[in-house]
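Morning!

This is the sequence you dropped in the shared folder:
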Amino acid sequence: MNQDAVVTASARTLPDLASRALGGSVVAANDELFAERENLIKAEPPVFQPHTFGPKGQIMDGWETRRRREPGSDYAIVRLGCPGIVRSIVVDTSFFTGNYPPEVSVDACGIEGYPEPSTIASGDWTPLVARTRIAGDTINEFEITAQERFTHVRLTIFPDGGVARLRVHGEVVLDPRALPGTFDLAACESGARIAGCSNMFYSSPSNLIMPGNARSMGDGWETSRRRDDGNDWVEVQLACPGRVEIAELDTSCFVGNAPGWARLSDGADRVLLERTALTPDTRHRFVLDDDASVERVRMDIYPDGGMARLRLYGTPSPQARIELAQRFLAGLPGSQLVEVLVGAGQPRAEAEALAAGRSIAFGDLPESAQHRLAGIRAAR
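The structure's back. Tokens below.
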């Protein structure tokens, strides 16, 4: 690709909300005799080793149920690691050739708290992918148009068979109620996203804002070697506007290919961190003195190289927290919306009426309810 071409997001480049890397889990499946349900949400691509047999047959890197001898279907329920608005569903049947399900469907729901699988199964499910035919050994992708914020998805296969991976690409919608005063504004799980970058030859810049520490160079962002006088860069759209107080630039695992220097700015005229020398395989922390609120941060690296993680710890303004709460409420499915409003102090009958009409004006809620929903806590 062109060294200075801007890379923008599409549905498939949005984070996989179901991925184990973001904390997803498979909370239930009615059958997993041949291959475990947890394989569905592995972050890495599926692999296949022919003629590798265990006590139950060929070992498959996916979820596989037994052959049905009666009418019915099989299902697996996934709790999303990051609840959000789903934009794309991928049902990956890689390496399943004579044992893939000919048809699938996908539904989603939004539920408060951490209920038992039986409670989740009886929730209000919204169809995302109607029952449809799929192909074996194929990445089957479906565009999603629903606008609600979901916490769980259910994959149903007809009548049985195996699926390698389930990807649920979407936009993280943060629940601000339990948000601390200072947090990583650049974290994917907070709702930040990559807005663009100059080069991602070796690995994606999205790795920069993933949870946890990088396990290898492949788990960070690495550009190709530049042969000109320019430099590489990446821009992060923060989870919400805020004042960045601490910047962490982590070159862990990058030994001979870390950038020599880095600079942080708001992408325009405001410099947050002047061009600063970096050390290979090191987690650098810098205190930033700028009091201004920013919405986007650009990291320039000089001239090229690899970075494991970028953390931008900061404090959102009260108005930013309220805007997060407004977006959170606007995306909730009806049944979850009722429970959230009741939890914020609204009488149940009033909460049910508001949810039924979707006529919620955040500013008309009592101030105490607004503060609970936005996670604004009184000073002690």
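Headline: Confidence is low (pLDDT under 50) at residues 1-9.

More detail when I'm at my desk.
O.
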